[in-house]
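Anyone opening a protein record will find just a pair of labelled lines. A complete record is shown below as an example.
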Amino acid sequence: MNPSVLPPEIRDLLRELADVVPADFTADFRKISAPGNFVRYGGGVIEYTSTAAAVRGIGGLLAGLSGEESCAFDQFALMLDVSRNAVPTVTHLRTLFRQLALAGYNQVMLYTEDTYRLEGEPEFGAWRGGYTAAEIRELDDCAAKLGIELIPCIQTLGHLDQLLKWHSAYLKYADTRDVMRVGKPETYELIGKMLDFWSRNLRSRRIHLGMDETHGLGGGYYYAEHGPRDRFAIFNEHLARVNRMCVERGLEPMIWGDMFFRIGSKSGTYGDLSAVFPQPVIDAYPKNVRIVAWNYYSYDEDFYRKFLAQHRNFHPDPVMAVGVYNSRILWSNHRQSRRTIEPAVAACRKENIRSMIVTVWNDDGSVCPPESKLPGVFGGAEVAWSGGEFGGDRTKTRCEVCTGIDFDRSMRAMELEPYLEGPDGNPIHCYSMLLHWDDPLLAMTYHCYNAVLPDGGARLLRHYTQVAASLADREDHARLMAEALRDKMEFLQRLLPAYRSRDRGELTELAGPVLDRLIERNGQIAESFRSLWLKAYQPFGVETLQIRQAGQIARLREARRRITDLLDGRIDRIEELERTPEQFAGYPFRYAYVAASGIL
């Protein structure tokens, strides 16, 4: 292909895609006038309205596809969580940006709570792998060549526990453990530094200010200083002040929308369609601040339409945020992603919503391997661009060619997340991560699922046995996890009956070959976690998974010692096994709640 005959933006684009696009790739690029993001590709021709549309066309040709596609959204963003332990390297992000561009995204948001470095603030993001100004500028240059607008997605009120934990430096900014103190001059000095960092280092003038899930707002040091105040008033006061700071810097802010709904709902829940907003609260909302409606759980298109209508009380052009389901699980849950993204996109089309964010959250440690997320990322793009099937053949072909992953294997690995039918006929999601970190003696997660699901333990064992068999053709992380979960379910299934009957033969086998195999498997998983992590992320954060994995191995060894002590007569009972599983009714949802009986 002769670069001299290409439009300048296409020359820059192809240079940035050099590692992905074969050297012999040729296409006739024709820029056309059409509404929104539109592309027509096939037969070596790409007709496009924007750089982002052109890259979508390149991805289509590389995959041997053809078609005419129009994106449902003018702004179609992927928000990547880079704050929950895993901070991707610049090299990994540049690769990801290329993949996102080929999928059809024209915006990327980096969710950074404290994972960027502020001048004069050495404790800000300490030991967290924060990005420097130079790294952000490099990423912005890369994104721009790909037709992607790089947008900061930060926190300026809540979700700042990783920052506020440094009491000597930041207690003066704190209201509660993770919420900043409204009204303090020092608070706005720090926020000013945050805004300056992003304003100076990115082309985009858009900025996401966060402000979600500030449940303790006004209830800590603020309360001690001011006494009780209406939470709407506190929130709007803070929003107005930060908004003025944005306007002064030429920034166009947006915020997550949940706090208005939580405060206005009698049940305090986001998604309560009966939430009431006093007119003075609506009137006080700054009309230049876009509001982001987020929901990662509903399967109902009609719900999304009503949900978006509620948000229009505050801004006529809300943004819809959906999710590639990725939190607290061992493999990205494509089933959940599809069931929520498809109706949300359909609702947006009918409600003429022109902006969508596909979020990839990494709550509770970022355990999911990076590659496990890609089918969901490409599936969301397929639905947004062509109204196509989330996991259909076109998604599979484009995803495999543009990323190099095995799409079908990722879909099989998704079954690490079992959905088992409950007593009422509805499926219950059994979280694999919690079963993996579950203490092998206390077995809180296991007992909870066993209590709420008929014959739950045996069904989990059967499920993981089938998953392990389906992944047996390759030695990789997914197979290791499936085999470890299978072996752990077998151990737990056999342990209580053997203990209650004092079956010495069974207990001897459990303390011997069964636990030996499980300990060895967990050692292999520790190495696999480390290898996957260091390929994609900065080393900061891997210590969390290593500590967790080492803790699991230590507790498996302790289980062996406790059983051996019983068999040898040093103890006459194992106290950890005395509580009956029938007493368990709910199920916890974080590592810290299942790995130990007390505080971690």
User: Anything to note?
Assistant: The first helix runs from residue 8 to 16. The chain has a mean pLDDT of 95.
